[in-house]
Amino acid sequence: MAGSCVQQKKTFFGGDIIFYSSLMWLEYKSKRFDFIVLQHTPCDMRSATSEKRQVIQQSTHSSTGGESESRSMSEANGSAAYGQAYTAPTVGKREEANVLRARGLVALILLLAVAGVATTTNLIVKQQERSDFENKFEGYATQIPAVTASKVRQITEALDSFASSIGAQAAIEHTWRNTSWPFYRITEWSVQAQLLAKLTGVEKPFIVVAPIVQEDDREEWNKFAAEQNPLWYQESIENEGYKKFTAQELFNSTIPFTFLYDRDNGHQPLPVTRPGEVVPYFQAYPIGPPLGSKTMLTNMDALLSSPQTESAYRFTRFTRRPTLGFVRIHVDAENTVPGSQVVQPIFDGPDTAADDRKVVAILLIQIPWLDYMKDLLAEGVDGIFVVLESASLGQSLTKLERRTITYQINGRDVVLLGEADLHDPEYDALGRSTVLVERRGVPLLSLHIYPSAELEDSFQTNNDIIYTVVVVVIFVFTTLVFLLYDFSVGRRQRAIMERIIKQDRIVSDVFPTAIRDRLYENQTKNMVEEDDADLVGDGGPLGLDSSFLSKSSSKNRSAPLAELFPSVTVVFADLVGFTSWSSAREPHHVFILLETIYGAFDKLAYRHSVFKVETVGDCYVAAVGLPEPRDDHAVVACRFARECIKKLKDATLKLEVSLGPDTSDLELRTGIHR
Fold this sequence. Notes:
single chain, 674 residues, alpha+beta, five-stranded antiparallel beta sheet, rod-shaped, disordered N terminus
């Protein structure tokens, strides 16, 4: 800068101003060259400028820090000097809002996924438990009827064999002794009855043989029974080891005629006077009177003993096949339990398949249903309902009478629930039915099996809760990892965004908005070109030399931005007396003065939309009409210069107390070039 200002500016065009940016602009500033120079500068202005530079060069070591701070404070308000207020980039805010929405959407999706997967897992586990329950019950429902049917079949086959044996024995006796029904006593009765009990698998059944006595044979039957009863009494006492009563005592407690109990009169025995046949009890096992009674059941009419027995008898006579029905069986003197009563016909010969066979007697066996149900399942299998339904002909022989009993099987034990269908209707769909006994297509005994809530509960575990909790924990852990990662990424992005905003603010302080935006566009364009060059590689598909691409890219990056502003007014403002004043002050005093003055000028520049070019020492350079052209640039420049002079006066008067009395002597010399 040894030459004059005018000589240096000869390269500019007729007083017009060329505004340089990019690297050339920064280089000029670093070398402290005046960027905008008057074409015709008065001599006093040139001397003042030279004087200013000498002062700054002399105080380089003492005031570099203060000048840097002053320049920083001034550039902090650079945006104001450019006639614009800094606005942070909105792209980051929009992206942050989009990220927040995406994060909320992901959180909602994760929440819905957790709820959906947890619910699905819970339903799958419960469905699996339900399937296991149904499959197990299906096995139980198959096992129970099979075992029960086997027991019923075992009993009916044993009774049929026993009845055939009695018929054969009676036929032999008839051949040798000319005896016939009903006047026939089975020899060794108790021995054969005990064998029948073993064959049926029942511990203590009640078995009795009741011959069919016609009305004309009643008197003779009474005599026959009175003669034969003591004989088989004594025989049974000896074979069974009975010690409670003697044969004579039992005979004395026997009613000597066919009777029935008067239920309306304290169960008093009454003689049977109705016409027709009677079916009196004869030989029975075990020996002795029934529980709670001192009277033997011998000679009691089976037809009148109970409606169930009469119905079963009539059905047997009608079908000529065994009939199974329900009866009440005494378990002690006061309590009875439901049981099954099988009425087995006895024919007048061993050939039970003959069509002309005649039913001469019946064999009755009573078995508590509890004996049928015991030991069917393993321990721990509780809560299975077994509903027994029997059908038998009523007295009219035209209508079936049905009875129902419900039991609950708990492992090897059985509990009577009542004489009705008491299963839970909720499990009707899972019920299984089996016909145990049928005659001529008519089901006489049916078995219905149903599960219960107790059985289903035994298959329910906490697996559904455990698996659901595991799934939720996995999703929660995944969500926490995602949130942690999102937090770290968000923190990194915020740090990057803060840095970008700071850099953008610095760039905005240095360059006007239009120049800044163009710099950003060129930078983006250069980055794309670099990426394209990387993709092409050495030679590339077109055979271009990489050095050529590098040079081309470097050329694009180094191209400066330049614009022509034909209508601009430049304002120079220089402090008069600053050199002598600053030589007698500390550096920080100089900084306070310049920072206060330039700060006030920056505010005025922002108010009047004046573009601040630079400050060099005590020289303040501004321009009006760039970067946004305006018609009144000269008027605004004059107004700005006048207000700067006034603002300097006000500022020096305020600083006089702290910076010295001669501070107010400083004046502002301004120059305006259009």
